[in-house]
Amino acid sequence: MAKKFNESKISRAIVGRYYEKLTEHIDSDVLIVGAGPAGLTAGLTLARDGRKVTVFERNLAPGGGIWGGGMGMNEVVLQDEALPVLDDLKVRYQRRREGLYSVDAVELAAGLCYHALQAGVVLLNLVTLEDVCVHQERVVGVVVNRTGISGRYHVDPLTFSAPAVLDATGHEAIVVQTLRRRGYFRDTPVERALEGPMDAAAGEEFVVEKAGEVYPGLFVAGMSVCAAFGGPRMGPIFGGMLLSGKRVAQLIADALRTEPVRPNAIPV
Ligand code: 48F
Question: Of all atoms in ligand 1, which is nearest to the CA of residue 63?
């Protein structure tokens, strides 16, 4: 009996579809660096709003700091303000005696990834941000490389363009860092800001309140907010990360309504 498929067809299906995704997303509405709780929530919200969203994740598995809960115990804690997000994701939670809610870390990470992709987000894992594109004092894209190549071989990267780029890389705020080390934030509070020591309640408020645009075209959400503006860390409580992602999505959506569409795009 003739075989329905062979190894070449399998390879062709993977390569074909992957390069379709890449080509379709060279120009996006929003580029998100980091697939942790903040980046995934922002991506999900913007994609549901009809935006073309690309998420880059340096690791193999998206989910960022969720998987390990606290000290490797895979439960994360959230406060009641974040429950509507969990309900929307159909992620289950348990009220604890302390008045907080506990969620299985794997269920939260999986739920965020699943719903973000279902909403239309294209997530490219094993891709590391190396730099940003700045044209006329505005961030208009990202410079990325394969994680296995980045920092290891002298191989030039590729670029993706969008009118809005979100730094959701967590404690490191890698995207902000690419501009900071070149002096783009001279004489602003971002120039020397450092993440502060732990204060869970204050940190949770800070990441939501201060989520927003840090440089024209560049936004921050999640722990990158603390790294950019000097807010306190908060440990394994995750409500603020989800709400920070939602808030920045709203701000990006507002900005996109007034920004030129894909300023770096050349019609093909
Ligand atoms: O660290 P991460 O989960 O950031 P977040 O969304 O959430 C922070 C919490 O996990 C936790 C916390 C409290 O609640 O304090 O730490 O702000 O996710 C950041 C993602 O960015 C990826 C990284 O692998 C992780 O999945 N990332 C970091 N640098 C790069 C990157 C890079 N250069 N290129 C691509 N992805």
Answer: 26
